[in-house]
Amino acid sequence: MAKYLPLFPLQVVVFPGEKLNLHIFEPRYIQLVLDCLETGITFGIPAYIKNGVGIFGTEVELVQVEKKYDSGEMDIRTKALSVFRIRQFDKVTPGKLYAGGQVEAVADVMDENIVIKNKIREAVQELYSILGIGNLFLKLPENFRSFDIAHTIGLSLEQEYMLLQLTTESERQLLILEHIERILPVVVETERLKERVKLNGHFKNLTPPNF
């Protein structure tokens, strides 16, 4: 079912369940936040990608205004809810300063593949270990979804946008696993190169071969 939603395009992909903190400074979006506070409406964040507003985005709710400035600017906390597709985009919502549009919800089929999920878990932990950030991500929760780790595996904005458009968890799992398996050899070789560069000019403790 379609509905009209205020829109706040940003050069970012927001995934359902994500908590996003924003600094609001433009008058049109200050007005949007004030409308959220007054009426409890939600708004959408479509990805601004390739110099245009993408047709896919994520509906978010205002959780809290963290700080108000004398200038009218605000720091806010939001939570992402669900993915939508824009059917009609208006640069200006009638009677408002901000954009808006007719949107419809995008299906989200939770058909996760447990085997693929376990492979993703192992691949992610290997990636973090190689990068030396294992202490930050010691263990993924048992119920993690693709959206939960999408910002932490080196996807480009275009790849994140592609992930947002997929309507089943199994498809998202495959995209993520293929990405990690593709970049792991590159990361390994990069780390080896860094170590070789560090050793240049230093005394080397090498074991001669037996022949």
TrEMBL record:
It comes from Pontibacter arcticus. This is Peptidase. SMART domains: LON (SM00464). The lineage of its organism: Bacteria, Pseudomonadati, Bacteroidota, Cytophagia, Cytophagales. InterPro entries: Lon_prtase_N, Lon_prtase_N_sf, PUA-like_sf. It comes from the Bacteria. It holds the Pfam family LON_substr_bdg. Residues 4-182 form the Lon N-terminal domain.
